[in-house]
Specification:
Blueprint lengths: L1 H15 L8 H16 L4 H10 L3 H17 L6 H18 L5 H20 L8 H11 L3 H18 L11 H13 L1 H18 L5 H15 L9 H13 L12 H4 L2 H17 L7 H18 L10 H18 L10 H24 L3 H23 L8 H21 L6 H18 L6 H12 L5 H4 L1 H13 L1 H28 L6 H22 L15 H9 L6 H12 L7 H4 L4 H21 L8 H17 L13 H7 L4 H20 L4 H16 L1 H7 L3 H12 L9 H17 L3 H46 L5 H17 L3 H20 L6 H7 L1 H13 L4 H18 L5 H22 L9 H20 L32 H18 L6 H17 L1 H7 L2 H17 L2 H21 L4 H19 L8 H14 L1 H14 L4 H12 L8 H22 L2
Helix pairs in contact: 1-2, 2-4, 3-4, 4-6, 5-6, 6-8, 7-8, 7-10, 8-11, 10-11, 11-15, 14-15, 14-16, 15-17, 16-17, 16-18, 17-18, 17-19, 18-19, 18-20, 19-23, 20-23, 23-24, 23-25, 24-25, 24-29, 25-30, 27-31, 29-30, 29-32, 30-33, 32-33, 33-36, 34-36, 35-36, 35-37, 36-39, 37-38, 37-39, 37-41, ...
């Protein structure tokens, strides 16, 4: 034994040595082999205990403990109960006697052995009296000796880690066993330990401050238990899902089982935690030296309370107990933090309180909250509002330095989301103070974002911050703005008039400032102007979120006026003067916009907002005309355009049938058929045009402008007004002609504009509009594109002709003047070279991008087939350009993007005939891509990135083609009958009515480029590739075996093997699904050709992975097992032969042979179906668990 100890310690010194000169890599590998051999040796507790006691090397002790753990798991069935108990008692004494001096990894390994033995005993259903480790834990937790108690907490931490299933399967149990022992542990031991810890906590609370450290350790353990991810009841599939998701979950609800009911619903539990908090807070002034620790303890208790507020699961089924729990919690909550006197000396506590409130409202729902007494609800709402206002001020104030602004913002967002849930279901009339509180919160948020004379210093600091902040406020504070908008709609009679008044005030101030600039020589204070613009920016954002609701689809055509706005506007008929609204409408029509108080008095607030927006747009255009554009705020321009877009989406031409009661004032100004509606639509179009001319250098303004234009085009009423406007067709001509200043706009924005133009035109039911669209847009673009391709084709034909004539003259020895020959050829060459100039390349690029926009605009229209038919000649020309510009990566990319847009947006609407035509074009473009890139090399700097993007786009396009199998909106119900053909990869054998054939041809085309350039190492390309082959083999395995040559099939399978070996779980799962699809086809068709023989190798490979590695992981188990079972059904005889070979290989290992016999004999090789697969997966799981236990994998 001593010689082995010396050998292991020498190996440890070599292995751990940091010197690269005295220790070679070979010596380090030899040392590692020594430890591996030691761990694989036969189990000997005497040897292990000797090494633990006599070795001076912590690493040797760690490896010895590892060998002990692995040996116990491996030999569990043959080890006697006495030996197991001897190990338990030895390790308990060893660790407790030296736990303060042991290294952390040694101590954790020793404690893990104890818990593994406990876990195995529990899985074996041994009597409770034999759970000596559990009993030892109970005794240590209850011990009055502080050292024993701390040791018990260490052992408890190991229990929690091992039973949580978040680590590896160190105990060698099956999934069902792991779930079973975990559930049993939760129902019994965990509950008992939690009660013992609560008793200890109460004991420490009564002692002096010397117990503060123990108090902290106890709270840590309690918090871990409260954060425990309790087991879900139900099937094996849910077991596996539960175990997989637990590993990735940072937090979870508190879901104790029914055995916890009495403990959890005991009112003293909640009361105790609040009592602990109040006690520590009251005694904190006596412990000045431990102020920081006391703050930490208070935070721990609040986090525990936050988790108790997350009560969920089976206990929630008892409605009466649930309500009593909520009532008790809220009563102690408002008692501990009375809203009238609560001041937060530590703002982090305010964040914890926000979390508690959010959890309570989320888990107990608004219905549960409303079930409490009115007085308690009132107090709770007051406290909630108080915390909200404090957080609001913290979030917007930049002078506080004792907290993290990011945490403050997160807490504020959470409590606003809680308010949003509450406001969505609560009865405002029941709670008298709710309206007042909502007004306070709304006003507080408004004041915190607006400038005033009373807080100049703060706002100057904010201004400095804003200058350095490039983030978009609308995106950064989107959650807050949505919630504040909901607040505003619930107090709409207060919020909307207030917002309108402030918006009018700031607009008038801006008008006054602009008049000073234009009419006097007075210098304007830039900071004052910035404050006005900043206020306008925030007022537009807040007002926009109050007036409109959020929709998941930004292009939603079903957006409506919120019910609260419509009802408020309807009720204003008593106070608003309809005649005055008509006068305002007339002023708007005459473009005489007056913002005076007299003019706006008794006018509907929504109408006032519209008028104000028009005035702001007029100011922008006016300043641009007189040369003072530098004074226009970019921020306001973005927000103003966004506000108009929201207004257009929700209000313009609204349908009165969608509302129970309709406001006459809104109908007058914004309703369908009103004169003001037509005027506003044209004004908003004018805003689009002016923005495109004024803001070409500001991409964010231009982007919002393009979105506004698309929104106007999507609305049927506004689109009908647009296409009757000369300004619309003027804009169409400018976009199509690509004149200045639209040339300065990015191609992405131009695509959006063409999308809007196409959408508006195709929305029209008037044939004349379609004819004009055809004549002004489609025909113009087609003629330009066709002119380019025809000219190129003519020049190429002329050059070929001249070369042939020259060759004939040389053969016939005819002498012609050299000048006449050279001039003609020189002219053709010069003309062709002009097509490669920057101007022409830009023109071609713009044309192709225009077509991308056209196709995107037709994607939601019933005219998709019409658009496709009209663009057939365009597709021919595009293919010609693709061939001609094959060396220009930018042009190639746009062409591929165009086909990608077709396949994504138009293909799903095409019938079978049109689909076949598109597939033929797709085949042609794939052939051209292959021809132009075969053997191609480039010296351009970004050639590799461009080429990779080409491959990525092509793979994306092929994925979209496969989606036609799942999504088909065409009215063609005809079916396609596929017939087998000879095996080939030539396009002559491709069936263009079979999308699988087309996709496979594209895959074969891309494959050499992917393989030769190692493109699968690029994450985006590898993900697209493996997703493509997975879907292809699932839906069209017949195409693979019918068309793919063996020369391609073998490397194709190799990429699948590479995906399983070298990539993460997502791609590995796709590869296994690919194998499953291919194997299932072989099994169903009973194939026995060369390709099926190559696929058969995966049977050996997957079984070898199980025996030699740690595959499959838990989240891949079902996919792995399904693929293996499909292979087993496809090759049953090969499976039996393989099993015999493995048994012979491991004939000296009786355990392994027994495990394999049990697995093989338990598998009835039957036809593949759900029942047989489920049966196989159950036996496969047991097999894997036993294999890993024996082989120590």
């Amino acid at each position: 034994m001593d010689s082995l100890r010396q050998t292991l310690e020498s190996a440890a010194n070599i292995f751990l040595s940091s010197s690269q000169t005295t220790v070679t890599q070979d010596q380090r590998r030899d040392a590692e082999k020594i430890f591996l051999q030691f761990r694989r040796s036969n189990f000997s507790f005497d040897l292990y205990s000797y090494l633990i006691e006599h070795s001076q090397s912590h690493y040797v002790i760690y490896q010895t403990l590892t060998a002990l753990r692995e040996g116990i798991v491996k030999e569990w069935l043959v080890l006697s109960d006495e030996t197991k108990e001897q190990v338990v008692q030895y390790l308990l004494q060893y660790v407790y006697g030296q736990y303060q001096t042991l290294s952390i990894h040694v101590r954790e390994q020793a404690l893990q052995i104890l818990v593994v033995i406990n876990k195995r005993r529990k899985a074996s259903k041994q009597p409770q009296t034999e759970y000596t480790v559990t009993n030892a834990l109970y005794n240590l937790i209850q011990s009055p000796d502080n050292e024993q108690y701390q040791f018990g907490l260490m052992l408890l931490s190991t229990f929690l880690n091992e039973y949580s299933c978040s680590n590896g399967n160190e105990a060698g149990l099956t999934l069902d066993q792991r779930y079973s022992v975990k559930k049993d542990f939760e129902s019994n031991e965990l509950k008992n330990i939690f009660e013992l810890l609560l008793n200890k906590l109460q004991l420490f609370l009564q002692n002096d401050e010397n117990c503060l450290k123990l108090l902290e350790l106890t709270l840590n353990s309690i918090e871990k238990i409260l954060l425990w991810n309790f087991s879900l009841p139900a099937t094996t599939t849910r077991h596996r899902h539960h175990l997989i998701t637990f590993t990735h979950a940072e937090t979870s609800d508190f879901r104790p089982p029914q055995t916890w009911k009495q403990l959890v619903y005991d009112q003293r539990l909640i009361e105790f935690f609040f009592h602990v908090y109040k006690t520590i807070k009251q005694q904190q002034h006596l412990r000045i030296a431990n102020v920081k620790l006391c703050y930490s303890l208070r935070s721990q208790i609040l986090r525990s309370l936050s988790q108790l507020a997350c009560l969920n699961g089976p206990l929630m089924s008892d409605e009466q107990c649930r309500l009593q729990y909520l009532t008790t919690f809220c009563a102690h909550f408002v008692e501990t933090f009375p809203p009238s006197t609560s001041t937060f000396d530590n703002l982090s506590e305010c964040f914890d309180l926000a979390s508690i409130i959010s959890n309570l409202i989320t888990l107990f729902s608004v219905k549960g909250f409303c079930s409490m007494s009115n007085d308690l609800c009132h107090e709770f709402l007051r406290l909630m509002a108080h915390i909200t206002i404090v957080l609001c001020r913290c979030t917007t104030s930049h002078q506080q330095v004792n907290y993290d602004p990011a945490i403050s913002k997160e807490a504020f967002d959470r409590i606003l989301q809680a308010w949003a849930r509450l406001l969505s279901g609560i009865d405002f009339g029941r709670f008298e103070n709710l309206r007042t509180l909502a007004i306070e919160i709304f006003d507080s948020y408004l004041n915190s974002h607006l400038h005033s004379s009373s807080n100049n210093i703060v706002n100057e600091h904010e201004q400095d911050e804003d200058e350095n902040n490039e983030d978009d406020d609308r995106e950064l504070f989107s959650e807050q703005l949505i919630s504040i908008g909901l607040f505003g709609r619930h107090i709409i009679d207060h919020a909307l008039p207030l917002l309108t008044r402030l918006l009018l005030d700031r607009t008038q101030k801006l008008c006054t400032t602009m008049e000073m600039l234009t009419t006097t020589s007075t210098t304007v204070n830039v900071r004052d102007l910035d404050k006005i613009n900043d206020d306008l920016h925030w007022l537009l954002l807040i007002c926009g979120h109050v007036l409109t609701e959020e929709y998941l689809d930004s292009d939603s055509e079903c957006a409506t006026i919120p019910e609260a706005i419509m009802n408020f506007s309807y009720s204003q008929v008593k106070y608003c003067n309809l005649e005055k609204c008509c006068q305002i409408s007339q002023l708007v029509l005459s473009k005489s916009i007056d913002l005076s108080t007299e003019a706006m008095q008794d006018v509907n607030p929504v109408t006032q907002c519209v008028v104000t927006v028009l005035k702001l747009s007029e100011i922008e255009r006016y300043l641009s005309r007189i040369g003072l554009f530098d004074h226009v705020s970019v921020q306001v321009a973005i927000s103003l355009t966004w506000f108009i877009k929201r207004l257009a989406a929700n209000y313009l031409g609204f349908n009165a049938d969608n509302y129970k009661q309709v406001s006459q004032a809104l109908s007058l100004t914004l309703g369908k058929g009103s004169e003001v509606l037509e005027f506003l639509t044209k004004e908003f179009l004018s805003k689009v045009v002016s923005n495109l001319h004024m803001w070409t250098s500001e991409i964010n303004v231009i982007k919002e402008t393009a979105d506004l234009f698309v929104t106007l085009s999507l609305r049927k009423d506004s689109s009908n007004i647009l296409i009757r406007s000369d300004l619309f067709w003027s804009l169409c001509d400018q976009v199509v002609s690509n004149v200045m200043p639209l040339q300065l706009i990015s191609e992405e924005i131009k695509r959006q504009l063409l999308k809007g133009i196409t959408t508006a035109c195709l929305n029209s039911s008037n044939d004349e509009d379609k004819v004009r669209f055809d004549r002004s847009i489609l025909t113009v673009l087609q003629q330009r594109l066709n002119s380019i391709t025809t000219t190129i084709k003519t020049l190429l034909e002329q050059m070929n002709y001249e070369f042939k004539v020259k060759q004939n003259q040389h053969v016939q020895q005819t002498v012609l003047p050299d000048d006449s020959k050279s001039v003609l050829l020189s002219h053709c060459c010069s003309a062709l070279e002009s097509f490669f100039s920057e101007t022409m390349l830009s023109q071609v690029s713009s044309l192709l991008n225009s077509y991308c926009g056209l196709i995107e605009g037709g994607s939601r229209s019933s005219q998709s087939s019409y658009l496709f038919e009209r663009s057939l000649s365009t597709l021919e020309d595009v293919c010609e350009l693709f061939d001609f510009y094959h060396s220009y990566s930018d042009i190639i990319q746009i062409v591929l993007d165009l086909f990608n847009v077709y396949s994504e947006n138009i293909l799903v609407y095409l019938n079978l005939t049109h689909s076949k035509i598109f597939y033929s074009f797709m085949l042609k473009i794939i052939q051209l891509f292959s021809k132009c890139n075969h053997g191609k090399k480039s010296s351009e700097v970004n050639s590799d990135e461009d080429y990779n993007q080409h491959i990525y786009t092509l793979l994306t396009c092929l994925n979209h083609l496969l989606a036609k199998d799942f999504i088909d909106f065409s009215n063609d119900k005809s079916t396609v009958v596929y017939q087998d053909g000879e095996s080939s990869t030539s396009s002559h054998h491709i069936q263009t009515d079979n999308v699988g054939d087309v996709v496979l041809f594209g895959l074969v085309t891309c494959f050499p480029f992917i393989q030769n350039d190692h493109l699968l190492k690029i994450p985006s390309i590898s993900l697209r590739y493996y997703k493509l082959i997975s879907t292809l083999c699932e839906q069209h395995s017949d195409s693979i075996f019918r068309l793919l040559n063996l020369d391609f099939f073998i490397p194709f399978l190799q990429t699948i093997k590479t995906g399983i070996d070298q990539y993460g779980n997502e791609i590995c799962k796709m590869c296994l699904e690919t194998v499953h699809g291919l194997a299932l086809y072989v099994a169903q068709q009973h194939l026995q050709d060369e390709k099926s023989a190559q696929l058969q190798l995966f049977l050996d490979y997957l079984i070898d992975q199980v025996l030699q590695t740690n595959s499959p992981t838990l989240d891949l188990f079902e996919t792995y097992g399904s693929a293996l079972f499909a292979l087993l059904c496809a090759y049953p005889q090969e499976f039996l032969r393989l099993c015999m070979n493995i048994k012979e290989q491991y004939q000296n290992n009786e355990q392994l042979t027994s495990i394999f016999d049990k697995f093989v004999n338990g598998i009835p090789i039957q036809q593949y179906n759900r029942k047989t697969k489920t049966n196989f997966l159950e036996k496969f799981e047991v097999f894997i668990t036993d294999i890993r236990r024996v082989t120590k994998r």
